Amino acid sequence: MERTEALARLGISHPVLQAPMAGVSTPALAAAVSNAGGLGALGLGACDVQEARAMIHALRARTQAPFNVNFFAHRPPVPDPAREAAWCDALRPYFAQFGAAPPVRLRRLYRSFAEDPQMLAMVLEEKPAVVSLHFGLPPAPVIAALKAAGIVLLASATSLAEARQIAAAGIDMIVAQGIEAGGHRGVFAPERADEGLGTLALTRLCVRHCDVPVIAAGGIMDGAGIGAALRLGAVAAQLGTAFIGCPESAADPAYRAALEAVREGGAACEPPAFEPPACETGTAHTVLTDLISGRPARVLANRFSDLARPLAGQRPAAYPLAYDAGKALHAAASARGVSGFGAYWAGQGAPLARALPAATLVARLLQELRAAPA
Question: What transmembrane ranges does the database entry give (predicted)?
Fold first, then answer.
């Protein structure tokens, strides 16, 4: 499928997709991107049916343009009380720093779209133009129902094997998520070794070996990056970290401050509040960690990610159970005025971030794309 045809299927004028970013994307952000000719998106994986429907309605009140809604299609966690208790015990000293205790029992915060018929029914009623999937694929009947409703389907791949599964399942387009990308790795089976492919290599592999359009994602922050993805054969680029600093995003002040610090060449975190120290001078500005949620994700280096050293060898609870403990620790620290324990997801391109209104940013990206080498 040619790029022009692929963009027409998505209903957009420009090869720019805003990443869904659950907890960061908002109806205002998605609408601004869609109204500017790109594809805005809502990350609904952390929502229940009522919340998801309300966000879709709020977005539709702001735009008549197509948009994407994203869901998590992870395998439900297998209960393991011993593992979960051990993880809470490992975090206990850090909760104690803030006069708190870890949860007595870890809750399963997010239900997988692969096992949520109520969410599927809502999507079929609302019929968003595009639905994207992360962490895997739902059963074939779910995919068939979405396609029968005329919805364009996207799914994230971190390897060629996953991309081939996506194509074989009848998904319309592949989002090639390179290791540079912020947020959760979209790996289907996190217990297996992650190939860690970069955006350049993964995009080219998917274009070469899959017969469906490929959207490049990971580390793309400006028009030159979009142009590079297009030259590799991608039909569009998906940008997430680039949009975090937009005033329309839901990033909190501490998140924005950490991103700004990285942009200016500083550390992403504050001085340590406890031993061992949280962030040391010279550490990478982003790191991959599974401590926050139980799944590998790229985050601005902070106090939570730095616990990888004292907690080395301690296996986190499974996703999303570990996220219950992670959110509780963040809340306990925040209540004492301490930041650095939030899920401040960001990609390796974070130093290139710009705090611009979303529509202005899209216009800037397109201007840079036109100026990029052919």
Answer: none
